[in-house]
TrEMBL record, chains A, B:
Mg(2+) 5 binds at D205. This is Thiamine-monophosphate kinase. Mg(2+) 1 binds at D45, N121. Residues 26-137 form the PurM-like N-terminal domain. The keyword Membrane does not apply. HAMAP family: TMP_kinase (MF_02128). The gene is thiL. It catalyses: thiamine phosphate + ATP = thiamine diphosphate + ADP.
Length: 322, 322
């Protein structure tokens, strides 16, 4: 199969037209019209076979996740998603039907969030990978950064935590495996939090680590009560009798939920906005002075997880962005 | 080495600030201010160890080329380059000094063209690769596309052809090897051609193939006189006595020169603009009715190169963009 045929098969299912696409796939660059007066937000992230996905992932899951993890970065900054580019690396002899199914997964995620696949490229490599660039926009005053948290802000976490990490276990419940394979970026919630939160980050590497990034950028500390971490029914079942029931919720990666710091006077509005969107949003702690990120167990004792803090280059560490 | 240390080393030499960088490396997304009223141009391209570069490339060449091939896409569309994101894939046990040198090469190319490295990510993979997203802008009326060529337009080629392909040969002259390893995208020329050319493409896969793309997109044919292809002194020496002296100039990839179709009434202005920029620009043929791309040898006979038309997925095929 030539690369032209491969590109055709991979891109055929994707939405190519959309807001501001002047010229999409087929020329040297995509030509895009940014929303007047707004800022452009850009992020890139790769999913690599054997690192970010394995044979347990259906091809469609791979394509979905490659786009979803990028859209989660846009969500974390309060952006509206607009366009994606996808660099595809394909091993010699790859099954064209499998690649077409990967393309359908990416297309499904793009359609769900109303964005267009505006360009990309394909190359040979030893393992399959997709490197997606996602572009979005936001009004200048609505961009959520990591570095704006202030002592006293309330820490709010969306959805439920630990599901994606638990979804990696052999025999994991379908609901947990689905969180691992088809993450659902919190774009609408991110935009709703744009005018309310003082800082935000998406939870790709686990709450302990990502909250650490937010606090370091903001020059603050944080205190989290582990008993308040939101758990799904499936996670509760999986964690019943676990040696460390807080390990997955506090340190498990890839939930792609949002963690926002919201000034106390705006918490009610943030919670109301989440209710309107039917997205759970749970206060789990506060931003503190100092530099320490303290996780408190139910007894009030400081929690020291077995493996908080990951090397993102280790297998199944997900979103080492810079 | 943790990924944070690796990111620090890789990105340290790169220019991070620049036109419109509101927030660069360090958050979930780069936040960028597009030039008001202009269109955004976006392209992505990967260079992969063993496919696009090998041990003959110094690490700095790899970083330079990864960015340069993307900037060439911006050049082909008449854009001003603004920002780049870089997704880095690193094999286990990679030498941190080598990665730092790759970063310095990328930084050197970014500085040369006045752009900022605004973001990126790092992941494990089996071979080293850099997937760069380049972003630029152009006024709406100045974007050069592939599909605007009209019969009678004159085909102009910048610089010299065949050097990069000849630079792959063992013992190639330093000038040729340098064209292969440190391509120099024709950004200023692309912008100068913006208001003059009816179509343009950059020569990543060789004139025969890339002109074919331009003609297919435009619904035209083309006739090129091979004896008019511009050759460097080093290429002339390398080709002296070659079995097929047109093979490298007509079909060799990776020169990253521009091929523009310019209406006859504007050719003098295009040539004058190139002279001002001190970039050779050579008429090599014309756009024709029909669909055939005809390469004419010195005798006037139709040329049939041994291997015109590449599978971009074969080793050392370079820029399979979509």
């Amino acid at each position: 199969m030539t690369e032209f045929e491969l590109i055709r098969r991979f891109t055929a299912p994707a939405p190519r037209r959309g807001t501001g696409v002047v010229l999409g796939i087929g020329d040297d660059c995509a030509v895009l019209r940014p929303p007047p007066g707004e800022l452009l937000l850009a992020t890139v992230d790769a999913v690599v076979e054997g690192v970010h996905f394995d044979a347990r992932f259906a091809p469609g899951d791979v394509g979905w996740k490659a786009l979803a993890v990028n859209l989660s970065d846009l969500a974390a900054m309060g952006a509206r998603p607009l366009w994606a580019l996808c660099a595809l690396a394909v091993p010699e002899g790859a099954d064209p039907r499998r690649l077409a199914a990967v393309g359908r997964g990416l297309a499904a995620c793009a359609r769900r969030h109303g964005i267009a696949l505006a360009g990309g490229n394909v190359t040979r490599a030893r393992e399959l990978s997709l490197t997606v660039t996602a572009l979005g926009s936001a009004p200048a005053g609505r961009v959520l950064r990591r570095d704006g948290a202030r002592p006293g802000d309330v820490l709010l976490v969306s959805g439920t935590l630990g599901d994606a990490a638990l979804g990696l276990a052999p025999g994991a419940a379908a609901a947990l495996a689905r969180r691992q394979r088809r993450p659902d970026p919190r774009l609408a919630l991110g935009r709703a939090l744009g005018p309310l939160a003082s800082a935000c980050i998406d939870l790709s590497d686990g709450l302990a680590q990502d909250l650490g990034h937010l606090c370091r950028a903001s020059g603050t500390g944080a205190r989290v009560e582990l008993s308040r971490l939101p758990l799904s029914p499936a996670a509760r079942r999986a964690l019943a009798g676990a040696a460390d029931p807080f390990l997955a919720p506090a340190t498990g990666g890839e939930d792609y939920e949002l963690c926002a710091a919201v000034p106390p006077g705006r918490v009610a509005r943030a919670l109301a906005a989440a209710r309107r969107l039917r997205i759970p949003l749970t206060p789990v702690g506060v931003v503190t002075r100092g530099r320490a990120v303290v996780l408190e167990g139910p007894s009030g004792a400081r929690y020291r997880p077995a493996r908080a803090g990951h090397d993102h280059l280790a297998p199944h560490r997900r979103k080492p962005a810079f």
